[in-house]
Amino acid sequence: MSAPHRPLRRLCGVLLAGAALAVPVRGEEAATVPHVLWKSGEQRFSGWRVAAGDDGAVAIATDAGELRVVAKGDELEEIARVDGPVSSVPSGALARGLGHAEEKVRDRCQELLRAQKELAFPALATALEDDAVEARRRALELLVRLPSYPKLTDGVRRRLTDPDEAVRKLALRVYAQIAPEDLFERVCWVLEHDDAPAVEHEAIVQVGRAKDPHGVDVLLDHLADLEARSLRVATFDALRRLTARDFGRDEEAWRAFWANHRKEVVGADDPPPPPSTRKRKKVAGR
Amino acid sequence: MKSPKPMRRPHERTKGSAALVCLTALLPLVVAGGTMLAVVVRGRTALETELAKKSAADAASSGAQDALAKLQGDPDFTGSYDVDVGGTSTRVTVTSWSDDKVDNDELNGVDDPGEAGFVEIGSVAWVNVVTDGNGNRIDVPSRRFRGSADVLLKRLDANVAVAQSAYVDDENSDVEFEDAPYTISGVDTNLDGSAGPLPDIPGIGVPGDPAAITAQVAANASASVLGSGGSPSVVKVAETDVLTLMSHYTKAATIHFNGTDDDATGALGDLATMTPAIAHAHGNLRLHGDVTGCGMLLVDGDLVIDDKFDYAGLVFARGSITFTGEGKKNLHGALLTTGSILGKDLHGGERVTVEYSSSVLTTVSTKLANSYILVSWTQR
């Protein structure tokens, strides 16, 4: 490298270090990420080095909030670097990386967003609407582990009807964590309309945790045409949680108990609901 | 000369009538008094009889309790002996059905295999028996009261067939530790960390499709599920009737948590001497502080293991098992749950370890086999 470049590099390094350190600390810092001044051809730009792919490409969260992937052949040169707090990495760029084609990039973006904790919420709201299933699923995985954030209620509710089964299951779990007023209604709707076993299982679990005694009506109605062992096991467990009674896995004993005690639990002026349409359809189909 | 007729005094007739009236009036009183006296005497006799009967029943019960205590010290004890309970002598007989030359269950002949493990305690007490100068009973039927207690016990079979280190009864449950480090190992390991005598068994056993749990394990780079059947060792296994096992062992529990949400700290059995105890929580249980133990832990709800935990034996849960907080968490033996196995907010980087140990399970089952389950108690 020629002599005139040396002072320039030193200057850039000092500026980068100053910029990184000047950023206010937002929350607990779990990790640091290299903030780098890059040169690619004649172009210079700075950003956070997120990950290197198997093909040698480098994923960079630019300071402009974009996720830029520079291929190995693009002669990317690192001019200066300084480690900065993970909270300073643009969350939007990381959220876009959740749906990236390269798994290493997706994993690293998810890891950094997890380290950002509550700071990642706005970016995750965007990721919930991403076209990539992987981005939506990973966003929900992150939300499961974060404290509930009621502002995401609408976005998560939309994912209850997502085309992907894993997304719907996670959405239901996050929705239960947020616990909006229509939680019980939504969970019952999912139980009635979703045929994917994993989602159905999650819905049964959430009915059991919803602490609404009307859930017993829903579960017993659902149990009538339920054959999968796993779903029956989950239903009996949900009934135990709702009633604080235990009749094991004896369906008849549960029905007898509810027939005899329903009025005292939910009130005499609250008649049992009609059988679900789902059940009627299945019975009609037999 | 005619003697003059004695003159009748004017009030003589009146006096006799009064006496008659008095007698007539007194008669009902006497009858009523007599009746009352009879009632009082009868009532007193009945009370005395009742007290004597109760005393006899209590003495018989105490005799049976004494036999239970004796069996706790010497599980193989059989024979007869007398117990003095507050001056009342009680005859206690402990018989093992397996070798008493009697067809106790009236099925399949004398001392058949179905009678194995059953022990009967007969306790008979006599109250208000007149004795001679040498203390020998004189048969006076009217003053004899008998109390008896017949107790049937069954020796605990604590030998649980463990086919995996962690049994997850519901294939759609989660084994999820939020990237925290954990080991579930089906490699037979002794309590001191040395290799155990038996071949490997699966780390996690599921009575259904293990794909979902396998994917969760594989997604955690810090997870280590070891054992037979692949890597990670998550294998489809035969169904275990967890609820029946739990309700069976609950009958022999000596430590109880009766609330819907309880906490516990300290010892659940003695880990240092490997003296097992069966602990039963009727609802959810949170273990916190520094919990050590040995034996069986039966939880009818969710189990949360917070802080340090070191346990040898079997853990059963009707709900989920969640490891959380700081401190090392070790389970030597096996666990069975109908719900999920979770790690949440685990701090300090300590690894959660669930390690199959045939030697621990053998020790626990052998020592717990000295316990008895109460089958029936008849008091007369």
Describe the fold and architecture.
The complex is a heterodimer of chains A (286) and B (380). Chain A is an alpha+beta fold and 286 residues long. Helices cover 54% and strands 13% of the residues of chain A. Chain A contains 13 helices and five strands. Chain A has a five-stranded antiparallel β-sheet. In chain A, strand 3 (58-62) and strand 4 form a beta hairpin. Chain A is elongated. By secondary structure, chain B is an alpha/beta fold. In chain B, the strands form three sheets. In chain B, strands 5, 7, 8, 9, 10, 11, 13, 14, 16, 18, 20 and 22 form a twelve-stranded parallel β-sheet that branches. In chain B, strands 6-21-19-17-15-12 form a six-stranded parallel β-sheet. In chain B, strand 1 and strand 2 form a beta hairpin. Chain B starts with 11 loop residues before the first helix and ends with a strand. The relative contact order of chain B is 0.13. The mean pLDDT of chain B is 88.
Helix content class of chain A: 40-55%
Tally of helical segments of chain A: 13
Based on secondary structure, the structural category of chain B is alpha/beta
Terminal residue distance of chain B: 92 Å
Number of separate helices of chain B: 4
Helical content band of chain B = 10-25%
Let me know the largest β-sheet of chain B: 12 strands, parallel
Written as H for each helix and E for each strand, in order along the chain, the element string of chain A is: HEEEEEHHHHHHHHHHHH
Shape annotation of chain A: elongated
* Rg calc of chain B: 36 Å
Mind describing the biggest β-sheet of chain A? 5 strands, antiparallel
- DSSP strand content of chain B: 25-35%
